[in-house]
């Protein structure tokens, strides 16, 4: 209890809320003594620093209760003066700790009282039962001694107790009891044992008392630490509270400044509002006037609307009916005019073409067809500038190209096939020349252009989409079959290639082992000992073409994965005999797939492929020289400059119909080669070969 009261006093000193500390300290010291006395009081006289009776104990307890009431009043006064909430919480926690300590103290006191064995009003627990047993034995011994004394008194040897309040005199002389010496000795031994046990109980009591004092000191130290931490927290709370108060003051000052500004703004807005009210009154007058005018206009509009509706119901149907009939008539006339113009246009186109072909036949010009292949999947997905489409088709028979330098040029040819043209469309324009072979004319059709531009596709084509060669032979066999009742046709086929300026017979059994030369004969140039195969059907020709394709020289280059490294010439000789007149006509059809022209550096050719490219370019250059010489009207035509030009001499001279396909690529990467090919074709188109004549021998000659 003392520690608790001291803690309360320390708290009151720390908070410094009241001015009555000195009298409370006096009461506290007195309360401490009262606590000690009251805690040990049993209604008997106890000597703890002086004598105290039951009345004194009651008085001290009363004083202590008064002191407690005073402390409660002080606490209530402190609370009424506005104690901090956090401090109250700490005080409550502190009280809980004190109560725990009081409980521990009570337990220790109980243990001490048990150890005392009834001394000071305590008893029970621990060694108390053993002590009580000893006390019973002592009582029994006392009773035995009293009996012995009574017995001894009869003998005149008893002891009388001193009167109450008499001073202690000298110890009485012991008179031996009238008992057996053995029993007395046994009792003395038992008494000695009890005394020893009593000493042991006192030692335990002293030990427990020491532990109690240690616990009290430890409890007091813990309470002091709690109070110290509470004081520290109070200081922190004061600092933080001060900081919050300062911030609140600053914020309040800022709010006051804002309020002042808002007040000024309100004043300005009030003035503005007054001005707007005054102007609004004027607007109200104007608005009322406008409302009147609006009402007038609305009524006029309604009247006009009703008049228009009435007029539309009567006049519009009439106007629409008459207008519709006029439009229908005009439209009918216009469509009829379009149909007439279309028919006339088609007639004019056919007539123009007929006349043009007639002029071409009379002049003997080389016909030139231009064909542009579609872009490949790789070119479409590339996204590079070099894969940009650079070819356009501005009009019928025209092609335009732009190169990488930005140069653009237009060319005009006899026929131009764009990227979407089909094999059927191409052959339809070629067919008239092919059929003239059956009449005894010499016809030459060749494809010229850069590698990878579609020359072989145009001339040969895949099995599923045949080109000019197969379609031409099919038509020849078909027409021969139709006229066989009057005319007997004998068709012979040969296939050769010009490879590195050497002629190779692609139908011979020993391909490449024999050398061939070009000779002049009565019916034009020819190759002696060349394999000539008589054919009766298209299937036989297709088998021969397959054999020739196996023997042909091809190689992979950067420009084309399966580039033709030679010039392929398929020749068809037709000897037609009229069964009635005996007249014989001789016609020749040369179908030529020239090797691709390409730049050596761009193709990536090396070694043998480089030599092949050089020979190809040499023969094509010689062909260009022949075309240039024919175009300029030179008396000397350099046919002997290459094997190719020697073989084409009949086709590039008079008495022959010649058609050239110039094949081009649509992408910018190949624009320079495209320019060269188109310029070459333009020069070839200007060559006049003269009118072609039939090779007919009258019967009997």
TrEMBL record:
Bias (Low complexity) ranges: 129-138
Source superkingdom: Eukaryota
Pro residues bias: start-end ranges: 160-175
Pfam families tied to this protein: Kinesin
Gene Ontology MF term list: ATP binding; microtubule binding; microtubule motor activity
Gly residues biased stretches: 117-128
Alphabetic keyword roster: ATP-binding, Microtubule, Motor protein, Nucleotide-binding
GO BP: microtubule-based movement
SMART domains attached to this UniProt entry: KISc
Cellular-component GO terms for this entry: microtubule
UniProt-listed InterPro entries: Kinesin-like_fam (IPR027640), Kinesin_motor_CS (IPR019821), Kinesin_motor_dom (IPR001752), Kinesin_motor_dom_sf (IPR036961), P-loop_NTPase (IPR027417)
Composition bias type Basic and acidic residues, residue spans: 146-157
UniProt domain Kinesin motor: residue ranges: 365-687
The keyword ATP-binding appears for this protein: yes
Region: Disordered, residue numbers: 115-185
Protein name, UniProt field: Kinesin-like protein
Organism: Triparma verrucosa
């Amino acid at each position: 209890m003392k520690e608790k009261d001291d803690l309360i006093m320390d708290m009151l000193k720390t908070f410094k809320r009241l001015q009555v500390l000195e009298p409370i300290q006096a009461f506290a010291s007195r309360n401490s003594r009262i606590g000690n006395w009251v805690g040990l009081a049993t209604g008997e006289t106890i000597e703890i620093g002086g004598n105290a009776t039951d009345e004194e104990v009651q008085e001290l307890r009363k004083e202590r209760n008064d002191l407690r009431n005073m402390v409660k009043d002080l606490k209530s006064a402190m609370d009424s003066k506005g104690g901090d909430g956090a401090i109250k919480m700490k005080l409550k926690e502190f009280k809980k700790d004190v109560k725990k300590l009081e409980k521990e103290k009570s337990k220790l006191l109980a243990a001490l009282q048990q150890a005392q064995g009834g001394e000071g009003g305590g008893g029970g627990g621990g060694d108390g039962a053993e002590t009580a047993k000893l006390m019973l034995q002592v009582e029994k011994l006392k009773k035995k001694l009293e009996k012995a004394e009574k017995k001894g008194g009869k003998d005149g040897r008893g002891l009388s107790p001193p009167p109450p309040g008499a001073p202690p005199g000298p110890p009485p002389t012991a008179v031996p009891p009238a008992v057996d010496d053995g029993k007395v000795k046994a009792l003395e031994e038992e008494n000695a044992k009890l005394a020893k046990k009593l000493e042991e109980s006192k030692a335990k009591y002293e030990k427990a008392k020491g532990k109690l004092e240690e616990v009290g000191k430890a409890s007091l130290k813990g309470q002091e630490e709690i109070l110290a931490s509470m004081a520290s927290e109070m200081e922190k709370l004061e600092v933080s509270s001060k900081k919050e108060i300062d911030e609140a003051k600053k914020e309040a000052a800022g709010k006051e400044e804002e309020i002042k500004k808002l007040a000024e703004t309100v004043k300005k807005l009030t003035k503005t509002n007054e001005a707007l009210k005054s102007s609004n009154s004027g607007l109200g007058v104007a608005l009322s006037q406008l409302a009147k005018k609006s009402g007038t206009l609305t009524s006029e509009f309604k009247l006009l609307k009703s008049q228009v509706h009435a007029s539309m119901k009567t006049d519009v149907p009439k106007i629409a009916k008459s207008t519709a009939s006029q439009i229908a008539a005009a439209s009918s006339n216009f469509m009829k005019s379009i149909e007439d113009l279309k028919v006339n246009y088609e007639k004019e186109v056919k007539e123009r073409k007929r006349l043009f072909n007639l002029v071409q036949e009379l002049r003997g010009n080389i016909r030139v067809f231009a064909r542009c292949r579609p872009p490949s999947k790789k070119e479409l997905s590339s996204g590079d500038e070099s894969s940009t489409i650079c070819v356009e088709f501005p009009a019928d028979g025209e092609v335009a190209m732009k190169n990488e330098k930005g140069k653009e040029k237009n060319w005009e040819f006899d026929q131009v096939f764009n990227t979407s043209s089909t094999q059927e469309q191409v052959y339809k324009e070629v067919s008239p020349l092919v059929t003239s072979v059956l009449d005894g004319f010499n016809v030459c059709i060749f494809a010229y252009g850069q590698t990878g531009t579609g020359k072989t596709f145009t001339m040969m084509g895949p099995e599923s989409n045949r080109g000019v060669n197969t379609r031409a032979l099919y038509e020849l066999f078909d027409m021969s079959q139709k006229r066989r009742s009057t005319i007997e046709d004998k068709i012979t086929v040969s296939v050769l290639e010009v490879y590195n300026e050497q002629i190779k017979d692609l139908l011979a059994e020993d391909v490449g082992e024999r050398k061939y030369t070009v000779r002049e004969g009565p019916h034009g140039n020819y190759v002696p000992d060349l394999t000539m195969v008589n054919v009766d059907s298209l299937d036989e020709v297709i088998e021969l073409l397959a054999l020739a394709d196996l023997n042909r020289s091809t190689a992979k280059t950067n420009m084309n994965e399966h580039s033709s490294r030679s010039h392929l010439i398929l020749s068809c000789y037709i000897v037609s005999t009229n069964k009635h007149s005996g007249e014989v006509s001789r016609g020749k059809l040369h179908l030529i797939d020239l090797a691709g022209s390409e730049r050596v550096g761009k193709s990536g050719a090396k070694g043998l492929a480089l030599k092949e490219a050089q020979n190809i370019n040499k023969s094509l250059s010689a062909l260009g020289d022949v075309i240039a010489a024919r175009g300029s009207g030179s008396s000397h035509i350099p046919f002997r400059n290459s094997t190719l030009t020697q073989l084409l001499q009949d086709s590039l001279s008079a008495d022959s119909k010649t058609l050239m396909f110039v094949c081009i690529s649509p992408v910018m990467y190949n624009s320079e080669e495209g320019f060269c090919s188109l310029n070459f074709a333009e020069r070839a188109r200007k060559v006049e070969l003269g009118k072609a004549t039939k090779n007919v021998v009258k019967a009997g000659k």
